[in-house]
Write a structure and sequence with these properties.
By secondary structure, the protein is of the alpha+beta class. The strands form two sheets. A four-stranded antiparallel beta sheet has the order 3-4-6-5, with helices on one face. Strands 1-2 form a two-stranded antiparallel sheet. A hairpin with a 5-residue loop joins strand 1 and strand 2. Helix 4 packs antiparallel against helix 5. The longest helix is centred in the first third of the chain and has 14 residues. The radius of gyration is 17 Å and the shape is elongated. The relative contact order is 0.12.
């Protein structure tokens, strides 16, 4: 059942703009799935979907879910998230700031947490900014360079 539901989610976001979890719940219910918003939220996280900005017909900015480049040659979810969503990397002492398009920071923050790099104490994701707390100032250049390499498509 879960596999069928997740296949349906991938098909929906690949074939039409899906702007919210509530909308996805409604679309899945229309296909006969009995789902809750919490279930859809878990599926989105497990599938690694990204929410990216798109322009509406009247010029307003909206968001839709997308399947990050499935054909990319990424070695990890973090690699994919950073390569596709991080627009800048900067920092000082033991703090790094990563910028993303609006609505994408939490995807990257979750991938950072899942990667569990020993040099990183943790991170905080907002809407378009992630604060990464590096364990020590000495480790900062190494961690920053790793993010820059991932952003450029290098190995992790």
């Amino acid at each position: 059942m879960k596999d069928d539901r997740q296949r349906a989610i991938l098909s929906l976001v690949a074939t039409r703009p899906v702007h919210s979890q509530d909308e996805l719940v409604s679309l899945l219910e229309g296909q006969g799935f009995d789902v809750t918003q919490a279930t859809v939220s878990r599926d989105i996280r497990e599938l690694g979907l990204a929410k990216v900005p798109v322009k509406s017909g009247d010029g307003d900015e909206m968001f839709k879910y997308v399947v990050p480049n499935a054909t990319g040659n990424y070695v990890s979810r973090l690699h994919r998230a950073v390569a596709e969503l991080v627009t800048s990397v900067d920092g000082s002492l033991n703090l790094l700031v990563l910028r993303t398009p609006p609505g994408s920071a939490m995807i990257v923050a979750m991938a950072i947490d899942e990667a569990a790099w020993p040099e990183i104490l943790g991170c905080i994701g907002g809407d378009d900014t992630i604060l990464v707390i590096v364990r020590s100032p000495e480790a900062m250049p190494i961690v920053k360079q790793r993010f820059l390499d991932l952003r450029a498509g290098g190995a992790s």
